[in-house]
Give the backbone structure.
Amino acid sequence: MRAFIAIDLPEPLRAALGQAQQAFRSACPEARWTRPEGIHLTLKFLGEISDAQVKQVAEALAQVSGFEPFSVEVKGFGFFPQARRPRVFWVGVEAPPALGELAARVEGEMEKVGFRREQRAFTPHLTLARFQVPRPQPALEAALASQETTSLGSFTASEFFLFESKLSPQGAQYRKVLRFPR
């Protein structure tokens, strides 16, 4: 199965993200907009894993499960890798060091069971849209100017999940496989 490890979002925040997407959609209709129900805070992407690896991942993640809940605020927008040639349009995540520490613990445990360590620094974000062709999006950038510091909401992160991702022409479908802490 195609898998990743992520923090799920509460429904009120998903609704706020959907409203933000609607506000920006007319500025960039050619983008592939993420369905609000599929937006999550990724800690580690694993890719295709076997049933045996699912078991190894579950055992490793059980070592990570003891963490103190922390608050996450969703605000600020941006582009990866940059606004001049964007591939991804995202909303930012502000959280205490506990989020980075959790991601580092997940990364370390996954490395122990054979997954390559991510070379890029952990940059918490929620993907709102993807671009097929990386070119400037002046209308979207103009629409963002008044929204840069707007908070879309906050939540307390107290658990994370191993998710399965099934790709389809209609977009990815996600299913929670395991919850941590158990």
